[in-house]
Amino acid sequence: MKSYKNPVTGDSDIEMKKHLTLDDERIQKMLDIKLKVFNKELTPGQARILVNETFDQISAEEFAYGEQHLYNAGITDEIMAEGMDDIIDVFRDVLTVNKLNLPSGHPIQTYADEAAAIQKVVHQMEAKLKGKFIKNEWLELYAKLSQINTHFSRKQHQLFSALERKGFDRPSKIMWTFDDRVRDAIKDAYELLQADKDQAFLEAQPHVIHLVYDILSKERDVLYPTSLKLISDEEFVSMRISDDEIGYCLIENPPSYKGTGENTASKSVQSSPENEKELLSDLQAVLRKHGILGGNTPQTLLDVTTGKITLEQINLIYKHLQVDLSFVDENDEVRFYTDTKHRIFPRSAGVIGRKVQNCHPRESLHMVEAIINAFRKGEQDTAEFWLDKGDKFIYILFTALRDEQGNYRGTLESMQEVAHIRSLKGSRRLLQWDDDHAAKNRANQPSQGNGNRHGITPQTMIARLIEQYPALKDYMVTLSPEFEKLNNPAIFNTMKEIATLEVVSQVGGFEVEELMKKIITFIDNQS
What we know:
By secondary structure, the chain is an alpha+beta fold. 54% of the residues lie in helices and 9% in strands. The chain folds into five domains: 11-91, no CATH class; 107-249, nmb1532 protein domain like (Four Helix Bundle (Hemerythrin (Met), subunit A)); 272-310, no CATH class; 321-424, Beta-Lactamase, CATH 3.30.450; 435-526, no CATH class. β5 (382-389) and β6 form a beta hairpin.
């Protein structure tokens, strides 16, 4: 068995320590005990007794710094992920957790509010396990529980990004693994529910419930207090603005957060339009400094490879592309992504400047590194993938970017939903507007067995209907305040995989046949 030795401080540890006040002697004692557990010199029970004899208390940031430090002792991410539960249990008696006492709108308070809402759903699940099995009630609970993916997404792309800039990257990588375990357990259980495998579904619930409680506990005990120690108030102000791009889980959009002090970054990021103007002004200043831009306005023409175009026009083109683009430079740092309305997967400004390796869960990291390494060595120029997700077919292409001398300058990822393109047949040589064409096709379709010519059933996915009839989303909001969540892109992207009309009717407080009738009438009137 491999033996792990006392670590030597690494670059990440040094960066993290700049932002914390730590006692080296206490840290070393804590690390010694952790290494004895990993080396099997102590059982978790024996280590817990030793910890309680050695420490009155350990702060969350001390514990987190210890996790960061263990990498230099040879404790890999895989070993850490497998042993994390034991390590937390060893220190549980002395690990201090203070109340947050944060204002509403603070990003950490928002995570805590979401955690409380998630726990409420889990409490309802525990109560349902003691009663009669009713599928519709479980469908409704799982429609809510699946929104935890939005909580995870914002945490992974926003909070982890800010922590990495402080040298805190290992614990966040490990937590990403636990997030994925929760997500997969929920997905697997939901598939059992859909397949009417009632007994197997019920047997899976204790595991799902345990994993959800466990991840929320790890967030509360370590992630939140450590984040508050490492991240400045000004950074939280900026983070709050980008949080809206991803959305929220089971709560209403929180109020804005403008900081607690007078000298806060909120003064430079008051609102999105003003912030965009300032960012544009900063970009223009950089371009002028390097002789690329001579004027002072967004209408100044730039010489590009095949024409002249303004910065304003460039941004408009990117914003309206029907393909999502992301650019990672030759140093593996994310430098750009297109902010389109139809974005397939959520992104936020927190990803800019982040190492691409930290933007992926540990389980898929090897594939990301394999692509970049092959591009950098000149062994490959493209890598393509596709995902068949029911009514969606997502095509992903990675392309190596090289300058005229053939030097590797980065990787471009393009992503597009191509289900409609794949369905096309024959030729179209005459102008024909898609909305009119679709309406004529619907009018000529025979009546379906469920009594309506649109083929709508209780199992129809709400996302499919909204994509086919975009105005339906606003109409749904008029029917029930609960349907306002459809306007949240992240929640909508999560729900579209599981939200049938049967599920949606439960959320909105309707009988499914009543909701179907309203939707069909609306669609008929639109046609």
